[in-house]
Amino acid sequence: MAEQLSQSELDYPFKLLEYFNGFRVSKAIFSACELGVFDLLLQSQKPLAAREVGQALGTSEDGIERLLDVLVGIQILEVEHVEGTVYYSSTDVSNLYLAKASPKSLHPMIVYFSQTIYPLWSNLGDAVREGKNQNEKAFGLPSEDIFAAMYRSEEEMLKFMGLMNSTWVIDGHDIATAFNLAAFKSIVDLGGCSGGLASELAREYPSSRVTVLDLPRVIQTAKQHFTDSGSTIHFQEGDFFEGDLPPADLYVLARIIHDWKEEKCEQLLRKIHSSCLPGGGVLIVEALLFENRRGPITAQLFSLNMLVQTEGKEHPPSRYTRMLTQAGFSNVQVCRTGKSYDAVLAIK
């Protein structure tokens, strides 16, 4: 930021103030989703006054009017004045990404951010001082077992799986097509959770058998809540750290490496190399940092989130290349998608 500041920005810190207010903007969107604002406006098929929105959602008229005005200010809603009354309506963006009914809805992601990530980030200063996650302070749970915290109840597990599903709704196609994976006839998505990325891989490579391997209760929940009768992906219960891996041409590690300390990741990669069929490989999906530490800001924020929630971090491509080559893989290729997540492919 310092290299690009104009004199006017030095005279008055517009950009800094915008950053300061970032959490307020986020929480306004989160609260609107949790209250059902976007679903109501989509279903109404007509603009609504604040009074009508408040009555339908059980809120105060004053409170909802202020929230709606903020959503107009950040261009998520539209507003019009008719004969002295103010009416609010949805936009294409809110209908597509914020209403629950949309196939591209990010509502599950927003609920997870609001109810899990937001409380954790309230303890960011402590995380930086202590160098460890804040699950104990935020939720009263031991910091050592990160997935015990994430899956602390059926409701919390569903929230996390909804987050993962939302992620691959918008990022899955870019990851599935980052490299041509058609030569890999058996693909196992380790820790594939809800099956969101596996479904994208199965759609893109219909001649490949795609399997999700995850913990038994995750697999059972995925089958119950996140798959439909037309799904072609397969599910297998297992623990990729403790149990044997099913043989495969390609193993996928999507948002897995960044959860754990590097030694544990190296151990897992060596295990994958041993199980991988000759000529097969591993596809790592993570948010890649720049080597010069200047971004991308999304990946940097993700890395900070790993501090408050897990025991891992995000890495630049060189770190993944080193881990993969030490595990025995070669021909490491990197693809930056320009979106939230990137891909690294390595061959045995």
Describe this structure as you would to a colleague.
The chain is of the alpha/beta class. The protein has two domains: 96 residues, Winged helix-like DNA-binding domain superfamily/Winged helix DNA-binding domain (Arc Repressor Mutant, subunit A, Orthogonal Bundle), CATH 1.10.10.10; 176 residues, 3-Layer(aba) Sandwich (Rossmann fold), CATH 3.40.50.150. A seven-stranded mixed beta sheet has the order 6-5-4-7-8-10-9, with helices on both faces. Strand 7, helix 15 and strand 8 form a beta-alpha-beta unit. The longest helix has 23 residues. The mean pLDDT is 95. Pathway: Aromatic compound metabolism; melatonin biosynthesis; melatonin from serotonin: step 1/2. One of its GO terms (biological process) is melatonin biosynthetic process. Keywords: Melatonin biosynthesis, Methyltransferase, S-adenosyl-L-methionine, Transferase.
* Amount of beta strand: 15-25%
Overall body shape:
globular
Number of strands: 10
- Give the helix proportion (percent range): 40-55%
The name of the CATH topology of the largest domain is: Rossmann fold
Q: Please describe the biggest sheet, giving its number of strands, its sense, and whether it closes into a barrel.
A: 7 strands, mixed
The CATH homologous superfamily of the largest domain corresponds to Vaccinia Virus protein VP39
Q: Report the order of strands and helices.
A: HHHHEHHEEHHHHHHEHEHEEHEHHEE
CATH class assignment of the largest domain: Alpha Beta
Give the radius of gyration: 22 Å
Low confidence ranges = none
Derived structural class = alpha/beta
The N- and C-terminal alpha carbons lie at a distance of 42 Å
Q: How many helix segments?
A: 17
Side by side, the strands of the main sheet go: 6-5-4-7-8-10-9
What CATH architecture of the largest domain do you see? 3-Layer(aba) Sandwich
Average pLDDT figure:
95
